[in-house]
Structures are given as structure tokens and as C-alpha cells.
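Hi C.,

You asked whether I'd gotten around to modeling the 302-residue construct. I have! Everything is below, sequence then structure, no commentary in between.
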Amino acid sequence: MDRNLFAGLLAALAAAVIGSAWQLVSRHGVTTTLGPMELALMRYGIPALLLAPLWFGKKRRIAPKASRVALMLLVAGGGLPFGLLVLAGAQWAPASHMGIFMAGSLPLFTAIGAWLHKGQKVEGIRLAGLVCIAIGMALFAAGSFRGGSLDWRGDLLFLTAAMLWAVHSLAFAHCGLTPWQGAAFVNGWSALLLLPVLSTVGAPRLLSAPWPDVALQAATQGVVAGLLGLVVYMMAVVRLGAPRASLSAALVPVLTTLGAAACMNEPVTGAVLLALALVVPGIVLASGAVRWRAKEAARPSA
């Protein structure tokens, strides 16, 4: 296997594991001792400080040549707006919903974005995958409106966040930044955008929450997700392209659902299993991985 391909697949796998862990820890945080603002502060403030040398060191290594629009979309899609939507949604909907709606809709929104931006058409097996995703999420979403449940509020926020992340993936491919530079750019601007928000609403729970909870969130939000997660996903985009990098989303619903059941006692209902049965294969097919692997197998070896 080509080294570049292997590195891309490994980065995509790491992104899936980190993404699932972030969803679980975020759901735990906003339903126990902390709130969205406290988590957002750690999610963007800590990596912004860790990557400050890329901004303020003797040899500044961030000099984006992309348009301002692309850079704004990069920050909006992978930075503070995205994070606040996810963290707010986690207050209202279970972690399994986060995994299914965010990861499931990512290939769908990425395909739409690629079609709008480059005119890339989706046909054949990829189209079938997108249809599976749409059906699975529609059936699952129908349950959010039954019995007076308010889960639908979180589900809508998760879908919006997934749309922003798809925009982030496509924008990064046109920004000319390395993964580390991209992480510094997104987290740095997100931290700056967070300052006026914090001056208005503050982060009142940060000092009153138990220190083990704060330490867990600081490590997971700031270092694992905010720094490593963003970098490995950008590495996957660089080596695989945005549509194929979104294949990493196939593992996220399963990992998040199993993790929520094991750690948070969230029930794995028939509706969840049906959604997974449609969404997960749909992600694989929609990514184009099946056709891609067939071409790789047919290519003559050196």
C-alpha cells in the first residue's frame, strides 16, 4: 500500500476515535457540572495557547494565501460556531443522536458542497449511499418528535454543525495550510471570537465545578479534540481528499452509541439500531471507498 494512502487512512481512523470520544465527553460535561461556554473555552483556548508559537514566534509560519472568504469558512466550519452548536445540542439530545446525525450527514453535506463548488456529480453507488443516509436519518429523526420529546432541538443543531464541518473540510483543501497551521489558524481565531462572548455571558461554572471534571474536559477538549483531532482530520483531508476523508465518519456513530451505552447507560433502542444499519453502510458507499478500492486493486503494481 502506498505510504501516503496508509498515512491518510490511519489519520482518518484516529479522527474517528477522537471524534467519538469528544462527543461522549462533551455530552457528559454539559449534563453534569459544566456548560457549553466552559467547554468552548477549553476547546479553543487551550490549543490556541499551545499553538501560539506558530502565530507569534520569531519565525511566523502562518501566511495564508487563500481568499478571506475561504479563511472565514475555515474558521466558521471547524471553529467556534461549529463547537458551540455541538455543545449546545449535547444538552438536549443523547450522545447516540450526536453520532448518527453529525457523522451520518457529513458525507451528504460534503457531496452537496462539492457539487455546488466544483460541479462534482454524485452517481451510482455513491448516490445509493447518500440515499441510505437520508432514509436512516429521516426515520431516526421521526422518533425525536414523538411523545413530547425535545431531542429534535439537539438533532437540528447537530445537523447544522455537520454542515459547517463539511464547509470546513472543503475550505481547508483550498487554503494552502498544513494541518498544524490550519489547527493554529482555526483555534487562534476561535479563541479571539470567544472573548466578546465570554465578556457577555461568562463561564460561571468553571471555578465551581469539581477539579477532576475540569481536568478531564481540559485534556479531552483542549488537547485531544482541539489539537490532535483537528490535525489528524486535516491530515486525512490532505492525503485522501475531503470526500474520502469523510469516510472516517462511518465509525463514529457506532463508537459513540456503544460508548454512551457503556459509560452513560443510554439505551440502544431498535430505532438506533435501524438508523445505524442504514447510515453506517451509507457513509461507506457515499464516500466512494468501494469504487476507489476497486480502482486501486486494478492498478498495475510497480
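If it helps when you're writing up: The two ends are 11 Å apart (CA to CA).

Thanks,
B.
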